[in-house]
């Protein structure tokens, strides 16, 4: 699955290029609880087609009803929406919050852009597909749009003159090894919006690969990492258990700005990996501080799909800037479990 923002923009551009009326809705402010974060977008076509989301569904339903009625009706009072962008709020009262399915006390404000320019949308999409981080600025007085490269991800900004929203290329996941666990993890990453590349020089593993949507390459993993040029929107995960394939790739990944670098393996294997890297590659504990392992969060996983869930949860937590409790780390949780099993009377986390 592609990054949702790119899907919305591409679909909207296609509607406009075909001459269809359409609008782009952006969440610009929220108060209290909100189903979707600031910066979320959706597009609505004159025929009622919708892509993207700004709520749990009820606000989308209201927008579809209001604007398809306006587009299709010839009666007075049903003016076709056009002109400069406009703001609309939902959930201002308790009754409205209940009507639109917002959490208690939740309010959100949208900016509606009418008939965005197709050429500008296509320019933005081309830049995103080329891996560029882009800032899209909309002038509120007339809807004029300017595009510029953004040096880093930025929060949405809105004032009485303009709205600026940053769109980035897809988050990427590079997986070393094309085994069964990789298939489950790749599937989860794809539906989480990651662009997935799988690297495995072993033909017998590549030949059995069955996940559509993931790119598969056969070069040596360390060469692939170098060519991949991991950035702050990239994670690199080694899953082969083979030091000849994993270690050099991990070392190259640690030289980059990848937000997550990790490798599968037990506590013993993880310790052995650190020892190898320090002995043979002159790494220090500080150099290896960013290397996750054992990877995943502790959920008692045993099967490949459960292990994939564990790994994906940790990757998403790191991506979203969430600090997980230490007792959710695999190594820490297993150490505590071993203590309890060896001495059932020991007090751990308030329970015996």
TrEMBL record:
A Pfam family that the UniProt record links to this protein: XdhC_CoxI
Question: Where is the XdhC Rossmann domain positioned along the sequence?
Answer: 173-315
Source domain of life: Bacteria
Which stretches make up the XdhC- CoxI domain?
15-76
Query: Mind telling me which InterPro entries this protein's record contains?
Result: MoCofactor_Util/Proc, XdhC_CoxI, XdhC_Rossmann_dom
The name on file for this protein is: XdhC family protein
Q: Which species is this record about?
A: Caenimonas koreensis DSM 17982
Ranked from the top, the taxonomy reads: Bacteria, Pseudomonadati, Pseudomonadota, Betaproteobacteria, Burkholderiales
């Amino acid at each position: 699955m592609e990054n949702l923002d790119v899907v919305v923009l591409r679909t909207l551009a296609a509607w406009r290029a075909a001459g269809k009326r359409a609008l782009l809705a952006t969440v610009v402010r929220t108060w209290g609880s909100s189903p979707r974060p600031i910066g979320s977008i959706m597009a609505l076509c004159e025929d009622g087609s919708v892509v993207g989301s700004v709520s749990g569904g009820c606000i989308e339903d209201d927008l579809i009803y209001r604007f398809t009625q306006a587009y299709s009706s010839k009666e007075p009072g049903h003016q076709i929406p056009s002109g400069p962008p406009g703001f609309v709020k939902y959930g201002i009262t308790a009754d409205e919050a209940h009507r639109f399915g917002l959490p208690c006390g939740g309010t959100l404000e949208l900016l509606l852009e009418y008939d965005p320019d197709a050429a500008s949308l296509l320019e933005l999409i081309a830049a995103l597909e080329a891996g560029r981080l882009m800032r899209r600025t909309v002038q509120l007085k007339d809807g004029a749009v300017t595009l510029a490269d953004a040096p880093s991800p930025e929060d949405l900004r809105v004032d009485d003159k303009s709205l600026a929203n940053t769109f980035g290329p897809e988050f990427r996941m590079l997986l070393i090894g094309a085994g069964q666990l990789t298939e489950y993890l790749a599937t989860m990453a794809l539906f989480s919006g990651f662009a997935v590349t799988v690297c495995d020089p072993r033909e017998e593993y590549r030949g059995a690969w069955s996940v559509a949507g993931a790119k598969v390459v056969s070069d040596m993993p360390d060469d692939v990492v170098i060519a991949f040029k991991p950035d702050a929107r990239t994670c690199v995960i080694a899953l082969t258990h083979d030091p000849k394939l994993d270690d050099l790739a991990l070392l190259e990944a640690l030289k980059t700005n990848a937000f997550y670098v990790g490798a599968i393996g037990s506590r013993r294997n993880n310790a052995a990996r650190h020892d190898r890297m320090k002995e043979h590659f002159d790494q220090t504990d500080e150099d290896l501080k960013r290397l996750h392992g054992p990877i995943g969060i502790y959920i008692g996983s045993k099967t490949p799909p459960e292990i994939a869930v564990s790994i994906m949860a940790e990757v998403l937590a790191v991506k979203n800037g969430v600090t997980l409790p230490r007792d959710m780390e695999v190594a820490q949780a297993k150490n505590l479990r071993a203590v309890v099993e060896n001495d059932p009377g020991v007090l751990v986390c308030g329970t015996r």
